[in-house]
Amino acid sequence: MGERSTDLGTEKVGSLLVRLAIPTITAQIVNMLYNIVDRIYIGHIPEEGALALTGLGLCFPVLMLVTAFSSLVGMGGAPQASIKMGQQDNEGAERILGNCFIVLIALAAVLTAIFRLSGEPLLYLFGASGDTIGYALDYLNIYILGTISVMISLGLNAFITTQGFTRISMLTVVIGAVVNIILDPVFIFGLGMGVQGAALATILAQTVSAVWVLVFLFGKKTILRIQKRYMRVSPQVMFPVLALGLSPFIMTSTESLLNICFNTSLQKYGGDLAVGTMTILSSCMQVCNLPLQGLAQGAQPIISYNFGAGNLGRVKEAFRLLFMSAIAASSMMWLIAVFAPGFFPGLFSGDAELIAYASWAIRIYLGMAFVMGAQMSCQQTFVAIGAAKISLFLALFRKIIVLIPLIYLLPQFFADKVFAVFLAEPVADTIAAATTTTLFFLRLRQISLNMEGES
How far apart are CA 289 and CA 197, in angstroms? Predict the structure, then answer.
């Protein structure tokens, strides 16, 4: 492991963060294209684009749940493995990797069966109407066949990033995205498959990414290797992984629950047009979040490794740079939403009515987007240092405790009910960012005192 661990432990933090974060940010931006390119193509299908886009948006909760279970294992296991590496325990890190590999496969099998058997009633629960259910089912029934590929590529790619191989982890996403972007127009328009073509292109692309990840982690260039002897699931290994993974799991899975709450409320107050707008807004939120996640993933190996090595100074420096960069990135997204509100809606649809509606809504929905950098950097640093309980609380706080109640409470106080539903997002962002930042700096002070006492 020599050179790689020396880099994480001794190289200048600023240059190390740039070297690790550029590939992860690139990967997240490409991943953003990966996730929204289907919506862009589908939204421009002649005559039926707006309804097809709404139908695809109804599948979003299922896609988020698959991603959430990948995060439960991958984002829970990767920081634990990195901390083990900082403690010079590579065998322990490989045991974590082997256990996570088997658990990802088992979860993929269970999720595939559940979504295959209960797809239609779930879609109606998510806010489908008679006009949109057909499009939603066409996409979902094909997409769920690729669940195992999605979970392997997302869940195990975190173990590539945490070792410092960010160029390899970036290529995992880039390769899949390129395949998807090439196949989408071929299947959707060339072969006339519509929504089904978009789903088929996505799962084929994810399969290519999954093969790439497995070839690397079974190969000779990796530091941590998937080995048969570590594939027997151990409760002692997996309990800490799942405890730490609960925070990113809840952050992602509650996106699914949030989408259901938004869709059902908007269907009640604004109909299919409002639900279609939510599909665009959720894509815009991904645009805001993914660069922040790329920054956090670039900083995570530095923070986790040096925390495991007891080097608090480097942990603080890495966090400071992450915090400042994340604030700058989220502020840029806020400026686009406020001063060019029609930019993103115009990408997703050619329907003038939908574009106008979404341009109005985006200024409300992303009205406090600039505080998201503080929320993300503090919460992800809690995950990087293995602070499972507080990171779990913060994941629950923003969405479950604050945002979901606001979605239903605010319409009781405004004449414009749809406005009130969209307003819930910026109010929750403000409360959550203030709470998370305060708790983080209090916790950081406590950690500093503990480490100084041990020294």
Answer: 27
